[in-house]
Amino acid sequence: MDITERLTFFAALFKVNENPKLGMWLLYITIILLCVVVYKLGFARKLPMLKNVVIYAFLALGCTILTFFAVFLPIAEGLVVAALILIIYKIRLHQEKKQQSQGNEV
């Protein structure tokens, strides 16, 4: 069995098997960005600056572990799906609030 058959989409996209150093860094950055988007859309609250720094530092630390899993498991792909679901939820929530505010004005 060839290892390239077992790579996930993002690992194959970044060619982790051909250039592991650059590929893993790109995968790590992708996972961090996707985690930040999912966190901001689903879980973020207004916090003081220092607490935000601590949260994002631990988020980056956790993404280090996720990056190693993401070579053969669909971690980044799952984060993309989670981000899309949360984006759809936020759009629908915004539309519903807009309709309610228009209904109250009439």
Automatic annotation (TrEMBL):
It comes from the Bacteria. Pfam families: YlaH. The keyword Transmembrane applies. InterPro entries: YlaH. Keywords: Membrane, Transmembrane, Transmembrane helix. The chain crosses the membrane at residues 22-41, 53-72. This is YlaH-like family protein.
